[in-house]
Amino acid sequence: MTEQGDVAAPLSTAPLGIFGGTFDPVHLGHLRLAEEAAEHLGLAGVRWIPAGRPAHRGPPSVAAASRLAMVRLAIAGNPRFSLDDAEVASTEPSYTVPTLERLRGEGAGEAAAERPLVLLVGADAFAGLPGWHDWQRLFELAHIAVAHRPGFPIDPGQLPQPLAEIFRERFSPSPATLASAPAGSIVSFAMTPLAISATQIRALLGEGRSARYLLPDSVLDYIRREHLYCRN
Questions:
Q1: Domain extent at residue 64
Q2: Intra-chain end-to-end CA distance of the chain, in Å
Q3: Per-residue pLDDT tens for 72-81?
């Protein structure tokens, strides 16, 4: 099920950003990355997909339903953002390739199958791509957009060799490339540096300290109401 609040996001042939993660909890760094990606890359919108059972890390600190609820609160009111709860509802581990395959199968007709999908990742996550399940198939299913710090573009010399080779083959300096094919390119964009992490927020909340201005007030209110991330 895909939601924007309670309204399904309309089908479009413009590039659609795909933003997955545990969002444990969702914070302003996540929101800013998605907003700047939509703006810099000319995306029709960004679909947020919280992982139900992330396969490449330990279990999240709170239940999938709570993480989904926090993302719903965080993105409310932004017409660019929509929410997908299929991974949270699934009993299977969350892998990106099956998720993209599912998205490719949504809708009907050539327009749905040919719509450009753009997987949004940070520079650190991109460097770790060779550790992902069936990672080379990602390029058959989507473009990849890498967020990096201003003044620090992606250096292929710092990437694992198999990924560096693919980066050199597929990188495009122009976001306009994303609209020309359903998948296969790598682009990058500089985003506002925000030194915010979910780990930091969980530590603050666990110590009973303030996390205000690191995440939306609506999410912080939900965390307090549901007594999430408390150590006692």
A1: 2-195
A2: 35
A3: 999 999 999 9
